[in-house]
């Protein structure tokens, strides 16, 4: 039974390691970049698919949202916090691409890494600087700006840009819904385990480590870019 509990407690850690695999790194895959760079006119469903794919495979978003919902039990709380993140994310994603405002990709991704660290420390009750609702909305703005920056690295056609970006954002929200559904089921199962307090602490320590790793890698990239 003790071995079983150890294996079960390692489940979220394995998930985090899997999530941090380079194959699931934040950004736009080369094949998708090629499509986006050559697409002319309105492509609603392809852009929705790419938005959903980005969210499902974007480990930085998933790590942060995992921290946000980790201790939430009531559906209305999940809906409230995820909506705040989605609103912030949508604002800067759409505004950034349509206005052409650009930020250094390494710098914004380093801040995204810190957002994961902050949420993990908040869950560990080590810090509590901000109202959690304001923090989630603010970091949603940062995450959206990060994705906007990645898209602006691609020469997107101005023909149908507004429709395509709205479609992409809808896809992001659909992907977020799918990913969060799986995470909610996972965390609900973990809460039923007898060793949940230790599992929760271990998971959030690894969340902090993953965010710190992301921050370090992007900081090195910023320094040498």
TrEMBL record:
Domain of life: Bacteria
Signal peptide: 1-25
Full protein name: HupE / UreJ protein
InterPro entries assigned to the protein according to its UniProt record, in alphabetical order: Put_HupE_UreJ (IPR032809)
Keywords tagged on the record: Membrane, Signal, Transmembrane, Transmembrane helix
Transmembrane segments: 49-71, 78-97, 174-193, 205-224
């Amino acid at each position: 039974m003790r071995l079983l509990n150890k294996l079960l407690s390692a489940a979220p850690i394995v998930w985090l390691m899997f999530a941090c695999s380079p194959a699931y790194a934040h950004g736009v895959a080369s094949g998708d970049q090629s499509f986006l760079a050559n697409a002319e006119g309105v492509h609603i469903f392809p852009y929705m698919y790419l938005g959903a794919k980005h969210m499902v495979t974007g480990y930085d978003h998933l790590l942060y949202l995992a921290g946000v919902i980790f201790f939430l039990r009531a559906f209305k709380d999940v809906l409230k916090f995820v909506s705040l993140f989605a609103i912030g994310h949508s604002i800067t994603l759409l505004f950034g691409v349509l206005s052409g405002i650009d930020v250094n990709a390494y710098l914004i991704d380093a801040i995204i890494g810190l957002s994961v660290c902050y949420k993990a420390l908040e869950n560990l009750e080590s810090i509590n600087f901000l109202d959690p609702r304001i923090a989630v909305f603010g970091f949603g703005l940062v995450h959206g700006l990060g994705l906007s920056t990645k898209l602006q690295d691609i020469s997107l056609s101005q023909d149908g840009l507004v429709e395509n970006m709205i479609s992409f954002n809808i896809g992001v929200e659909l992907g977020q819904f799918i990913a969060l559904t799986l995470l909610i089921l996972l965390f609900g199962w973990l809460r039923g385990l007898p060793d949940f307090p230790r599992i929760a602490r271990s998971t959030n320590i690894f969340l902090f480590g993953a965010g710190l790793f992301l921050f370090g890698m992007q900081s090195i990239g910023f320094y040498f870019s």
